[in-house]
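FAQ

Q: What does a record look like?
A: Structure on top, sequence underneath. For example:
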């Protein structure tokens, strides 16, 4: 977070404190700049004004920069940090009973803020823009062939410190488990080393990697059976029931946890015909490994090959698959939209690329409609 800056303007009764970098500070906290500005006014008993178009945020009166920085720390504690793990990666959610909840992306807990603070009234009247996850919950399921799924129930109020039992909390817990169990467990691996067994395994390896076409990679080898991606693909294909923790351990053991091509290989070898249901089970792996736009594009490239070439009979579930990855915060709206409107021959032939993107149109349309609904609100 950048250091909060202040500038005193005017004199006499018209003196005021302008905060020139309030937008940058607020962006780092994932909060609208009007919230901390109004918080300063509430704490100092001063009037505030803001012009979001001109990016100008003002607190009436002359106020010392150090004082405002101390108040900003208080704002962070009250309205940003998770009440359970003290992590700042939270989103503000307003429940149907108008309780203000901090939804933590790190530990999955949902904790209520101090509802007695004056800023709460301002936030309830000026709610934060819906995050992509809330949009997904609001209209989940409409992407598939235009059909509506059952309505998602409204959020229930939680007591301070009370944990949420929703599905994402479980996924986050599994991600934490991956951190704690990063060391590879010592096991007794007994491998059949007979000539017949080795020949069978090499045949299986060749069949697996024949399906995997890597794009431009940092290494010179691509799917030749000796490179780490080929070895990872073969191992995952033979151990699809190992579970997310064991798969991630294998990825770590091979030093591929930060490689975007490893994400593509996992997509092509980890799933079966039941991919829609399997995505939730494998969510912890992708939440750990997909950390950039490049990782997301590699994931989408893997889906192109898996659904367009390996399982063309599953082409109709493309919207469902995209929705599942979107709902667990692995795919971002901007990345999916850009991918869906630009045909590429990087992973598949042009016709297959067109076919997969054509099948994704219901999901892309749903994203546009959800965004329009937010603008209307």
């Amino acid at each position: 977070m950048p250091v909060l800056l202040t500038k005193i303007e005017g004199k006499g009764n018209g003196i005021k404190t302008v905060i020139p970098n309030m937008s940058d500070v607020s962006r780092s906290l994932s909060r609208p700049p009007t919230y901390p500005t109004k918080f300063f006014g509430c704490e100092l008993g001063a009037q505030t004004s803001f012009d979001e178009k001109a990016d100008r945020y003002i607190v009436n009166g002359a106020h010392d920069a150090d004082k405002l920085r101390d108040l900003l720390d208080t704002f962070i504690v009250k309205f940003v940090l998770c009440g359970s793990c003290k992590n700042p990666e939270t989103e503000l959610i307003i429940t149907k009973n108008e309780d203000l909840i901090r939804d933590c992306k790190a530990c999955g807990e949902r904790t209520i803020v101090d509802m007695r603070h004056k800023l709460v009234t301002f936030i309830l009247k000026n709610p934060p823009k819906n995050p992509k996850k809330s949009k997904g919950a609001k209209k989940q399921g409409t992407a598939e062939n235009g059909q509506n799924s059952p309505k998602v129930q409204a959020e229930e109020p939680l007591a301070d410190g009370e944990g949420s039992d929703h599905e994402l909390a479980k996924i986050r817990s599994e991600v934490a488990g991956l951190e704690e169990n990063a060391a590879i467990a010592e096991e007794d691996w007994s491998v059949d080393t007979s000539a017949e067994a080795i020949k069978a395994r090499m045949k299986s390896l060749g069949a697996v990697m024949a399906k995997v076409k890597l794009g431009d990679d940092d290494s010179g080898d691509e799917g030749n059976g000796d490179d780490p991606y080929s070895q990872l693909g073969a191992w995952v294909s033979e151990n699809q029931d190992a579970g997310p923790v064991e798969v991630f351990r294998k990825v770590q053991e091979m030093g591929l946890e930060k490689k975007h091509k490893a994400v593509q290989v996992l997509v092509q070898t980890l799933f079966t015909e039941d991919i829609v249901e399997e995505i939730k089970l494998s969510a912890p792996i992708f939440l750990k490994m997909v950390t950039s736009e490049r990782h997301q594009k590699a994931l989408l490239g893997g889906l192109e090959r898996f659904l367009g070439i390996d399982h063309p009979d599953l082409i109709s579930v493309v919207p469902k698959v995209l929705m599942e990855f979107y709902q667990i915060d692995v795919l971002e709206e901007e990345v999916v939209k850009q991918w869906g409107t630009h045909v590429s021959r990087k992973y598949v032939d042009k016709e297959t690329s067109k076919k997969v993107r054509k099948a994704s149109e219901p999901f892309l349309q749903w994203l546009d409609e959800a965004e329009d609904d937010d603008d209307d609100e």
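Q: Is there anything notable about this one?
A: The chain has three domains: 1-80, 81-164, 168-184+192-376.
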